[in-house]
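Q: Here's a chain of 224 amino acids. Please give me its 3D structure as tokens.
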Amino acid sequence: MSNPVYLALDLPQLDAAKALAERVKAHVGGLKLGLEFFCAHGHHGVHELAHLGLPIFLDLKLHDIPNTVAGAMQAIHMLEPAIVTVHASGGRAMMEDAKAAAGEHTKVVAVTMLTSLDENDLMRTGVSGTPHDQVMRLAELAERAGLDGIVCSGQEVGSVHKQWKDGFFVVPGLRLPDGNKGDQKRIVTPRQARDDGASVLVVGRPISRAEDPAEAARAIEATL
């Protein structure tokens, strides 16, 4: 992959999303479309952005019983996404069925622990141990389920990469050294994540909310 940066287009307005993608398309490697975008625009919105010629990452975080997740995966076949997310906490059977139902050229990756959560948040949901422990447990489960890789923070990707040599690792929650953290708690820079083994770097607000999004994307690309 020549440019591992995927722009997170978490915008509810289709025209605004298309305009932003057009401005930065020369400096990103793909587009990440999340729940907000997909719920607002569905298949039509994905088709509209696919016309730009960049790989599409559908960050839907599917999490349900195995049969339902498999059905959802089949329902997005025609969109030909490059990457789709499911939740690792849905269990091995759910992940196996998701992968079996995915398109031949679609990478299915499991979300381990959201980058907006920390150890206190884990404890409140009844999960013991550190975020690192939880990510490593779920990464092992995803690998055994036959998935292509996982989503984790940059703080864990190095350890996961050592454990899963040929895995495909998506790292969100990235911020520049002088950037605003926003609602993210476990962050690193794009360069650090890439050095530690990240396959895809998901960048949202540092580009989308920049005064000049194209220049911001260019600056991030230059650090890699």
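Q: Can you summarize the key feature?
A: Strands lie at 5-8, 30-34, 56-62, 83-87, 107-111, 149-151, 168-171, 200-203.
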